[in-house]
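Lab notebook, bench 4. The sequencing result for the construct came back, and we need a structural model before the next group meeting so we can plan mutations. Quick request posted to the team channel:

Model the 3D structure of this chain.
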Amino acid sequence: MKYIFVTLDAIYNIVSNRYLQSSEFGNAQIIANILIGKENAYNKDGLIYFKAKDGGVFYTNGINRNKGILFDYSSFDAFSESNNTIANIITIFQKVLRYAVRYFESAPLSPSEKAIPEKNTIIVYPFPYVPARDVYKIFVDKNSTKWSRKDKDFLIAYASGTVINDEKVGISQTNINKAVTDIASITIIPNTENYIPEDVDKPLGIVELVENTPLSLDSSLRFEDWRPYLTTSQTKFVYSDVNGPERLEGAAGTGKTLSMILRAVYLLKQHIEQDLDYHIAFITHSLATKNHIIDIFKSLYPDGAKLITSNLNENKVSINITTLQEWSINYLGNDISSTEYIDKDAQDSKAFQQLIIEQVWKEAYASSFQSTYKALCSKDFTHFIATTTEGALIEMLQYEIAILIKGRASGDIDVYKSLLRPKYSIPCRNEGDLAFIFSIYMKYQEHLERSGAYDSDDIILTALGSINTPIIRRRRMQEGYSVCFIDETHMFNLNELSLFHYLNKTEYARNIIYAIDKSQAVGDRDISNDNLQTALQLSINASSQRFETVFRSSPDIINLAFNILSSGATLFTTFENPLEKTSFNFTSQEEKKCRFPQYIGINGEQKMISEVFILADKLHKECECKKSQILITITDDLLLRNIEKYAQENNKPIEVLKSRGDFFSVQQANKRNLYVIGGIDYVGGLEFDAEIIVGVDKNRVPPASTKNMDSYHFINYAWHNRLYVAITRTKYALIILGDKTRGSSELLESALYLNLIEKVNWDN
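Done. Here's the predicted structure in token form:
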């Protein structure tokens, strides 16, 4: 094959068809195979492929024989399996066609396109920039042929790769001539298919998910209705029986949670039809997420509402949608009363942990450290304490107590001393350092005992000890679940992960399906895949399924998020970037709604606070969305309190998130036409049309934590996670605000250098 020609009418069809945006859709795979030369026919949704002797033409019944783009295979080799994957081929194809749309509509270039005026050439960059790698690019010639004199306007994609000397690459006039001849020979055959682009221009994602709420599943869309909207990988995952452990990976916005719920519905329906006993545990991290998933489940499967129960003996087929903490409390029953645990919500419980740790730290530092431990501690440890801010220190101590002492050491000082320490943690060089931290843990436990309370780790570990006994192990042969789904596995620490194995019947012990995006991890950040496998007690490796299509955010927003994660992966060896192999699923119609991300400098914090609501009102009008579809994310607690106070004093319409994934507050905002506002740790699991992130500036993101590199790396790692999660909450528009008097945040330096975000008002 020497060429592929796409007529202008076909270009518009391809860039507007939902199912041609990502290689995870079957139709897009066929298109990719045509480009490769493995398929010779296509006639779907109004798009037709005509195979000629030396090439092929994409067209529609509204064929425009005078305008289009030619991919000249004599020099253009991007559509070769040896050079690119199917996913990359579709991305390149779509990105070049999107440039063609802008060319024919005389629209400005996108940030991923660069003009070379003297050569009448455009360079298209189809992939996000990755540091230390050569940039892949496509060269497109603008109307430089003799055909321009015959009222024809053709673009020609003539070169591709990372290192290109386009001076030596010639454009084949012969291939252009053949394409023109082949286009002229096409006979239009009436197409009986009713193709309406708007019907397929509906994205898959949680954004489609409960009546009157853009954050929940459309109540009119039942389980049976979803199948046409799923990608091939989602379809494979949803409509499968369970035969052992499964790991579901994917970046934010790839539809992991929704697919998990659909899979649960499918399994329940199958076993009802077969009249077989079957029980599902669906575990979430927070009560807010649990309640939202119940709403989604009922919307997908109205008749399944009666199947929701924690009583395994109530129905032959059932599902228990719950948090791990709630399950543990219910399991312990009379062994723990409602007055003894801090909160049923693990997240709220852990927030309270920090307050207690702060108190006991101050007491320990003022007394025992000065009188006893200081002489025993290493110079590095003493320097660390002296040079680390209290906020950073408390966060690191919480990690030390929950993850290392309680989780990996089970509260045993000897085991704790023998642990291989995470790379980015408190610098403990000798036994004196470890002994002092352990003394803080003991004081922390004493504080809990005096108050008659147990924290979330205590509850989990107690349940773990109670369930791992000969009696319970025997009972599990008859009692327990057939399969356990774990949503947002990255939110759980090692203590919590170690419990899941015991929820299932013995014969189904390995039936654990868990969704994970380690770049969002706020649980055990240092946990390896091997440790995860061990914690879940999976004797065999879990089969892995990766979702690679992002439905939530615009390409520009994803490129920015990709850069944040790439920077993290460059700094930290354990940092993962799930966007490495990601495809976009925005149609051209959706892209027209998008705004390029902005980073705006405001002179002073008070002015920044007032500017938040001016910009929110502006986004409300420009995006033509409800106020409840605009998220205001705040990066620190003090700034959040000040913005809340300003909103109250100035009668600004806001609803404040109370916890991570607080869908109830979003629903209230929707009913009352209010902006949604929340701390950066509370916005996970949500999505909006537009977002303002407030307070991304120097010494705040990441915080001015320290002059000590150990705490600096720990906090910096966490803030790469937080900023990635925050950025990926929005669909069309993102504005980031920073205080000019502080300076710009180092986490955005790379993005600013690469022009992935527009820098506004920082230089004057």
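The chain has four domains: 3-185, 206-338+487-492+514-550, 346-453, 555-760.
Will bring this to the meeting.
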